[in-house]
Every structure is written in structure tokens, then in C-alpha cells.
Amino acid sequence: KPGRRAEPDGPQPVPGIARIIAVASGKGGVGKSTVAANLACALAAEGRRVGLLDADVYGPSQPRMLGVSGRPASPDGKTILPMRNHGVTMMSIGLMTNEDQAVVWRGPMLMGALQQMLTQVQWGALDVLIVDLPPGTGDVQLTLCQKAKIDGAVIVSTPQDVALLDARKGVDMFRQLNTPILGMIENMSTHICSQCGHEEHVFGHGGVVAEAAKMGVPLLAEIPLDLQIRLAADGGAPIVVTQPDGPQAQGFRHVARQL
Ligand code: ADP
Fold first, then answer.
1. Which ligand 1 atom sits closest to the C-alpha of 35?
2. What domains lie within the chain, and their CATH numbers?
3. Is this complex's ipTM strictly greater than 0.90?
4. Which positions in this protein are listed as binding ATP (predicted)?
5. Which phi-psi region, left, alpha or beta, contains residue 187 (left: φ > 0; alpha: ψ -120 to 50)?
6. Full-prediction pTM beyond 0.80?
């Protein structure tokens, strides 16, 4: 009903942030962080005020992917100043720990850290906050969806069965949490040899299309397995920044325009 307030204990909007979009995956290593970084930069390039919250506690890769380092400042001792690069305001659990230090936190500590990154970081006014979630269906996902009103989830998967099986669980989790699923992205969909142009489906092809159709979820894009995408991501400036008009950037830009 119009004007109805959110339940006091239910998911709340975060003040100043118009939309929160979660980027999730069933498995690690499927390119979830690469997608999150490229979507954030593509949105920024379109003039949207965008934030990226790296909540992948077990493998925070956004500092590297966005070329950000150093410890965030807290001038007042209460709030934290986010970092900024490529037009994206960002905060990562990886900036609070040493890069090669493993995060061995229990559930409540993880939830505290997530809460802190959502509410104590000075995000400023944002049109979109992209949240890079850890893989799987654990405490962080649950806490995020229960505390903050998530406007949509994007699920990244590679086409092979092992990854799809877990992606399906991700879809199921968001459905149980009443989080709208915007769609799936098939990453490492196809590989085109940079030497000879031969196209190969390293992880099979069409797996995500079929799975998305089966679950009634839109397929947002198919992203190729491409050396340039990896070099850009690992080099601190995503492909949508380094080669915005190249073919590898188009899938990301296409999805960003729909967010
Ligand atoms: P996740 O967040 O799912 O664990 P990452 O985004 O960290 O996965 O990606 C894992 C590795 O694969 C990174 O080195 C990244 O650069 C690389 N990668 C991701 N997507 C692609 C792609 N489409 N083409 C080439 N390399 C990719």
C-alpha cells in the first residue's frame, strides 16, 4: 500500500542510497567480482552516482580490481571515508585487513562488519550501490537481505554443471528472502583465441541460458572468457574503463544500462 512503512525489524532502505543491487554467485572464481567492478564502472561512465561495497569477506578483490589501496580514514573516529576511483565510491573489507591476511571471523563478527560498511561509511548520495557478495548462501547474504532493502540480485555463473548447481541454490535463496532477481550472467561463456580467432566453449555453452529459462529468470548477458578482461581486472582498471568501445566491454555496458 502506498505510504506503508517498512516493518521495524524488516529490511530497511539505507539513507541516501536509492537502489542496492547485489552481485552473487554460487561458487567462487566464476567472475562475480569482475562483473561487479565492470558494472560499477559502466554505471559511473553513464553519469550515475555509484558505490561498490566489497562484502566478499573471504576473498575481497575489489581494491585490486579498482586499483585502490591504503587504509580508509576515519577523521571523526565514528564514520569511515570511502575510497574512490574510476568514478566509483568504494569500500572493501579488504581495506580493513592486510592483503595476505585471512579473514577468520565468526558469523556475528561478519555481520557486524557488514552492518558497519553499510551504515558507517560516508557513501554520500548514491543512485546505485553495487554489493559484491561472497560466493554461496551464507551469513553475509542472509544478513544483507534481512537488514537492508535489496532492490535486485544479479547472479553470475559459468556454464558448467558444477557452477550451475550452486547458482540454482543462489536463486532459491534470494527467492526465499523475497529479493527480486534481476537475472543471470553467463561468464566465461566462450573463448576466442587472440591468435587465430578460433572460438571454443571451454566450460560448455548455453548452460546458463537453459538454467535461467528453467528457473524463469532473465539471462542478462553472456561474457566471453577473454585475456583482456582478466588483464584489465587484475590491473586495477576494468575493461569498461580501459576499452569501453571494445567488444569485451559491451556485455557489461548492456547490463549496466538495465540496472
Ligand atoms: P569471483 O569473484 O567469482 O571469485 P573473480 O571475478 O575474482 O571471481 O575472477 C576470478 C579470476 O578470473 C580473476 O583473475 C579474473 O580476472 C578472471 N576472470 C573473470 N572473468 C573473466 C573473463 N570473462 N575472462 C577472463 N578472465 C576472467
1. 6
2. 17-258 (3.40.50.300)
3. yes
4. 26-33
5. beta
6. yes
